[in-house]
Amino acid sequence: MRVRYGSMLMHPRSGSRKMRIQWRDRSRITLASQGDMTIYQRRFRRVNASGDRVLPFYGVEHGEKVRSEAKEPQVAASRATRLTILCRGATAANQQARFSSNDLLLPKERERLTMLVQGFRRFDTVLHAPEPAAAETASAFPTVAGTCSALRDISYGTWNDRTVADVAEKSPEDLQRWMTDPSSAPHGGESFEAAQTRAAAWLESLHSAGGSTLAVTHAILLKLLLLHVVAAPLTSVWQVDVEPFGMLLLTSNGRRWALRGFGAGPQNG
Question: Residue 49: is it exposed, middle or buried by C-beta count within 10 angstroms (0-12/13-18/19+)?
């Protein structure tokens, strides 16, 4: 494509001065940067007295590169990340003090859950552990929920579906070791240390998520994440109680998590 090019100055606003221009190959015109002003237009907007079409030039002299004061792109301020970690509702395993993750919510918990949801604002994102009770809890919220493997319950290995009383009677030393050494897994499943590591890795990946997120998981995972945020030793896990529908409220500024609340009741406002 060929365009017309001239050597006179012309003010962009007055439009009073016109100039004769000559044909030049557009490919020979160099732009200094992406933000530079082009020196041609596809449609000529002015015609001089002789009928020759002219281009308005914006303070550009013949032979100079066209430059404009390109402003630095403004980076939009990122939204703070608000995370609510909710303990799923109670199951029969809770009532029986039994190591199990596959039970459904108790009927009375469904009623409590309905009232609980009404106290929350709508979340941008809802995630849940893959176990049935966590999925059922998350499904009560209006935002479509997704499964998150990192929120899964601890694997109790050979203790699965056994009561604490049964393990204490038949394997007291193993139970004692499990309760005092967070790195041990006498049941052949997952240790507290391993569970916290994978849950904390998930948590640290959310700093730049922005908006509000609900994560439904199990009491033990909620406690392990609380200890991670406040940098408390894992042996403190037995000093923290989490009730069904208890929650942990966190906020990230993009670099670190801050504790906003811990307990029960909707507080994501």
Answer: exposed
Task: With beta carbons less than 8 A apart as the criterion, state whether 199 and 212 touch.
Answer: no
Q: Mean of the pLDDT values across residues 222-228?
A: 98
State the Cα–Cα distance between residues 146 and 175, nearest whole angstrom.
Answer: 34
Per-residue tokens: 58: 């914006």
Question: What residues form DSSP beta bridges with 5?
Answer: 22
Hey, what are 35's tokens? 């933000």
The answer to whether residues 222 and 87 touch, using CB atoms and an 8 Å cutoff, is yes
Query: CA torsion angle for 158, 160, 162, 168 (degrees, to 10)?
Result: 60
Rounded CA-CA distance 6/27 in Å is 16
Q: Which residue has the tokens 């998520």?
A: 209
Instruction: Provide the whole-model pTM.
Output: 0.70
- pLDDT, one tens digit per residue, over 141-155 is 999 999 999 999 999
134, 172 Cβ separation under 8 angstroms? no
Q: Phi first, then psi: what are they for 24, rounded to 5°?
A: -140, 150
The answer to whether the Cα torsion of 116, 120, 126, 127 is positive or negative is: negative
* Closest by CA position to 160, among listed 188, 193, 120: 188
Q: Is 196 helix (H, G, I), strand (E, B) or coil?
A: helix
Per-residue pLDDT of 148-185, as tens digits, reads 999 999 999 999 999 999 999 999 999 999 999 999 99
Burial 64-84 (b: 16+ CB within 10 A, else e): eebeeeeeeeeeeeeeebbbb
Residue 41 has pLDDT above 60, yes or no: no
